[in-house]
Amino acid sequence: MKISVAMCTYNGEKYIKKQIESILNQTRAIDEIVICDDGSNDKTIEIIEQFQLENPKLISLQKNEVNLGSNKNFEKAISICDGDYIFLSDQDDIWKKDKVKKIIQYFYENESLEAIFTNGELINDKNEKFTEISLWDSVSFMEDQLKNLNDLYLHLIFKSNMVTGATLCIKKEIKNLILPFPDIKNLHHDEWIAVIIASRKKIGYLKEDLISYRLHSEQQIGTKLRIKKNRLKNNHLIIDHILGNSIPKSYVDHRRLAKAYYNNYLKFKKFSNNQKNDSHFLFKEISELNLELFKKCNFSLKKANPVFYIFTNIIDKIRGKRQLHKQQTV
Q1: What burial letters (b/e) apply to 102-130, b meaning 16+ CB within 10 Å?
Q2: What angle do CA 111, 112, 113 make, to 5 degrees?
Q3: Using one digit for the tens of pLDDT, what is the confidence trace for 211-257?
Q4: Alpha-carbon span 254 to 185, nearest angstrom
Q5: Cis peptide before 180 (omega within 30 of 0)
Q6: Which of 51, 184, 207, 262 is most buried (most C-beta within 10 Å)?
């Protein structure tokens, strides 16, 4: 069995040393690290080449002649990897020492799985954990509400992508299913992989924090986390409704749910119209399902409070939102 790491870099001199060291110091050794650099003009290449001198048979460095962007760079890195299991890696996180060991063990215990993702802690520029909010909290992954892999799939396609690529490991045999990544605006490689594999009911997860996921100071950390905290309760209710664990009772509940369905209808419709992969039917199916659920939810809105329904519909028309003949988002 061979284990690969697909890492993408771009001007990562500040943090990449810590990341590569954490990968090299795993309790379950890595067999190859494929690094695709997207045109760094800082000391990133110099740092990588020093690691290459120390680990000549382990690290492969590919220098892109032109900047490919994150999606296509990861596509290239994954395509080059030769391992039976391929771990995706950003340039600025830190892996826990037993990350590889625990994920590979979970694959052994669940042979049908094709991809596994994990939780993580959030760290700052100084490598310090600075909040009790987890990575899953920050992406609104309500794991405690899931009962099975079908619920995981519903969570993914109806609410949000909660699979962070930096925590993801995939099996070699799914490369032909996920590559090439379609060139669609705002579609990230991890969401593409997650939707494809979740639709096959073959994606799993580990609750443990197996990486330290870095948030940079320039990301206005405090503001973003404060917003996430305020949204957690609402997101929890939406997921609860989507999974059928509760029934929307108020007008506000129906309204939030309708927004979620409509946004997903637009998103997957765009994916379906633009992507050229064999999985074209998947996005079209998801889009149409979200549209039907939006229409049902919209009908429930009218029943719940006819006056508010008329008023909000007028406001939506003025703003050009949730109009089925247009392509605006909420």
Answers
A1: bbbebbeeeeebbbbbbbbbbbeeeeeee
A2: 95
A3: 999 987 644 334 355 445 555 555 555 555 555 656 666 767 777 77
A4: 29
A5: yes
A6: 262
